[in-house]
Amino acid sequence: MIYHVQNFGAKADGVTNDAPAIQAAIDTCSAAGGGRVVLESGKTYYASSIVLKTGVDLHLERGSLLRAHADIDTYIHPNEGQQDDGVEHIGTPVTLKPSYAFIYAKDADNIAISGPGTIDGNAYAFVKRVSPYYVTGDFYPRPTLVYVEHCNHISFTDVVMQNAPFWTLHPAGCDDVLISQIRILNDLDVANSDGIDPDHSTNVRILGCHVTCADDCICLKSSAGNMEYGPTKNVIISNCTLISTSAALKIGTEGTGNFENVIVDNCIISGSNRGISIQIRDGGNVKNVSFSNIIIETRRFADCWWGCAEPITISTHDRDQHTKSGHISNIRFSNITCDSENGVFFSGSVGNEIEDVWMEKVQVTMRAKTKWQRGLYDLRPGLNRGGSGSDSTTVSAAEGLCAGIEKMPSPGFFLRDVKGVTLRDCRVRFEGDDMSDFGEALRTERCTEVSVENFRGKAARPGFADQVIG
User: Fold this and answer.
1) C-alpha–C-alpha distance, residues 423 and 411, integer Å
2) CB 148 within 8 Å of CB 154
3) Euclidean distance between the first and final Cα of the chain, in Å?
4) How far is CA 445 from the centre of its chain?
5) Which of 212, 251, 329, 369 could form a disulfide with 243 if both were Cys (CB 3.0 to 4.6 A apart)?
6) Is 159 helix (H, G, I), strand (E, B) or coil?
């Protein structure tokens, strides 16, 4: 059955709150056993929160626009009054469940949002400019655009999602999730506007999507707020194009639970602050992850964003003195081409080494691209670390950078505290006139069981060895 929201009283004039009419259509559709609720083309629907129900496909015809209401007080507040360690949290969706959502569902199986219309989060109703480089909210929470919890056999296809004031598409505790051919078009200066954030979800396929946003494009999470669910497991990401002022493809940092069995293939990353990042700061473990056939182009953005233009970075460090980080193991990279201002960077911890890493046909070309300082490695968030190596120091806030950023001439590959690593048919090339912030082609520190086969690359400048293995 097809249900047109105009038949339930929607004005579609871009001014009237159409949420009651859209909700009535959804409720009627679900009660009848399911079907399609249609937002017609050429019309603008202005609405506060909407709740999807079992069996409903919310379908936006081409040329239709569903815009989020500007008044936060009109939104559904499903997690009001959460308690954590005796302290009331009002809207901290990075660690707990989102406090507000524009489109929301819970325990609703066989739901869908389909396109090719547009869902607009009305971001600038909730944020303000705080620097030349980004905007952020006066307050938390800002509403998540789409949050679905404990919903199985669900699909998000073809639709455009844009102008999210916070995370865009957040399935939590879900199984059998298909995200296909969607576009996420967020401004590149709206902080926390993640694209797709599967959280404690399993059997997830993210296929053929284009994402541009000011935070992580696709970020796998196992958040503390959804620990009643299992690991984030069995994830396929393929044929996506990604642009981010943070990390394009990321696992963490919300990693209280585990991540297992992830395949990423045939993606292009461009204009990003980081390419691929596995960033573990909590107790969750990461194992069995494969990246292949990926082109990565990174440049450094302002220091308010985590990262210093690393095309590939893996790190595990304690978030704080009370929160021990998890273990990372069995990570594979194959046929990766990088054009970047920094090198590949792995950073484990003594006693918690990154383990069993295999890199084949990973090519890194490093050159200066921006006005920002180079020769830096970003370990935020977490306990501050001292520098490593004779040329390395920790850069303090007084020097214009945050503590937790290490300064040293950047090698093409810099591996620290890794146990069991193979580099096969990898290559480093330094280009351009300014080599002052670049160092060796390969540098390892406190690494064991290192195998280097057919590695090609010369140091950036005199005074540096081509390879330093330690």
Assistant:
1) 15
2) yes
3) 66
4) 28
5) 212
6) coil
Beta strand pairing call for 405-407 and 393-395: antiparallel
User: Is there a domain that residue 143 lies in?
Assistant: yes
What digits encode the pLDDT tens for the residues 315-330? Answer: 999 988 889 999 999 9
Exposed / middle / buried, residue 273 (Cβ in 10 Å: 0-12, 13-18, 19+): buried
Q: Based on the domain organization, do 145 and 271 belong to the same domain?
A: no
Domain membership flag for residue 177: no
Q: How far apart are CA 328 and CA 287, in angstroms?
A: 6
Q: What is the pTM of this model?
A: 0.94
Domain count along the chain: 2
Contact status, residue 165 vs residue 189, Cβ threshold 8 Å: no
| pLDDT confidence tier of residue 402, bands split at 50, 70 and 90 | low
For residue 60, the enclosing domain spans 1-152
Phi-psi domain of 454 (left: phi exceeds 0; alpha: psi -120 through 50; beta: other): left
- Contact present, 444 and 416 (Cβ < 8 Å): yes
Tokens 């990926």, residue located: 294
pLDDT-derived band at 139, boundaries 50, 70, 90: low
Give the integer Cα–Cα distance in Å for 358 and 297: 21
Residue at 139 is within a domain: yes
